[in-house]
Amino acid sequence: xxxxxxxxxxxxxxxxxxxxxxxxxxxxxxxxxxxxxxxxxxxxxxxxxxxxxxxxxxxxxxxxxxxxxxxxxxxxxxxxxxxxxxxxxxxxxxxxxxxxxxxxxxxxxxxxxxxxxxxxxxxxxxxxxxxxxxxxxxxxxxxxxxxxxxxxxxxxxxxxxxxxxxxxxxxxxxxxxxxxxxxxxxxxxxxxxxxxxxxxxxxxxxxxxxxxxxxxxxxxxxxxxxxxxxxxxxxxxxxxxxxxxxxxxxxxxxxxxxxxxxxxxxxxxxxxxxxxxxxxxxxxxxxxxxxxxxxxxxxxxxxxxxxxxxxxxxxxxxxxxxxxxxxxxxxxxxxxxxxxxxxxxxxxxxxxxxxxxxxxxxxxxxxxxxxxxxxxxxxxxxxxxxxxxxxxxxxxxxxxxxxxxxxxxxxxxxxxxxxxxxxxxxxxxxxxxxxxxxxxxxxxxxxxxxxxxxxxxxxxxxxxxxxxxxxxxxxxxxxxxxxxxxxxxxxxxxxxxxxxxxxx
Length: 504
Ligand code: AHR
Hints:
Number of strands: 26
Largest sheet: 10 strands, mixed
Radius of gyration: 22 Å
Number of helices: 9
Shape: globular
Bound molecules: alpha-L-arabinofuranose
Strand order of the largest sheet: 23-22-26-20-19-16-1-21-25-24
């Protein structure tokens, strides 16, 4: 028996909704077909955006969307994607399959999509192959209300009112596809580019995000921060390092980058390897966080894990440059574990964007022409949505067994996190990482005597997934298999499961 102790009175940090964010890139069928089909499509749409996909994402409560990349961002020239669609420039998407990008989805379409989704906007600018002027003008085009060359152009293109940019990324992976820079060089460019991201809307300040490290590149974190905080800012240090956020990218590949393996065909050994690599996120957050603490002890800079998720081999027969993969119960557990880790570190982690939202890597939605399916990962985001904007509270598990097949890839059997919503509801999300063993769990609270409990479960065989022929193989169900007695909540968590409780 495992015992989960919750002190619902001890609030540790606020869980920003943006931790549950998503990422959409001009890559494969993410934007085109996955989100945008154009006004003239037979697929039901509103201003070109798929109704089915937008509806499902709203139901999942998507808080923020990052766009246009990814590696694509540092090759994207935003002016190619505005004005009449027939005259928009076509370009080669050199990173992703060498296909023609016709720019029919551009700035106006992105803001339209976010308006339909009711989510915040995260625009990623181009440092690798773009100029300071180009970046600065994009911000002016999108957010300036008055009379100016760029605001006038936006109005001429049919959008009178400025939009809100909630977050602006100054380059992407500038240590790699975004220009192969050294941290000092990028740090200096960051200082320069971010200067011209003007705050035109006093009612809606833009939060600036600096490109952070790949996985365990602590050298990058240290040296970018050192460069960006080297001289005091005019007006005092209210925004250390000229930034509101520093990104971190980490993908889970079971056998490493060279050996990603099949998304749907794997054994127990690979299951534990994958989950163990997912738990590594905690060490990354703690070690990068310790460096950030030296430069920003007050934790004003958020850690933005704006790319994370499972990256496997593409589905057989699909374009290798499109990164289209299936999503099984293994992905669900990776999502459950990772989101619990983000919650537990919400004092530093202020945003995270799973890669990517539709039809790419660990997508929450897959489409095939007019058909759409929800992946197991979708259901995890749906079950965890109550953590958004809640307060993380103290919790720990006694009797949490270590499981797995090999020493290197052992994991704790249970992953959990607990929050309290503004109305006092206690939200518990708990995962059983074992492929074979159920685990009895007893939950105790500091003061709460549970009177109303609602729960949902996602469970299935480790390789179980949804297909266009069988779209409901894996789906969230109501979970009633619990008992409340003497102020305690007891249940058995089935092997390979994600469970969420709402307790009053
Ligand atoms: O998500 C796919 C790619 O992974 C992104 O474009 C890039 O930023 C990362 O390397």
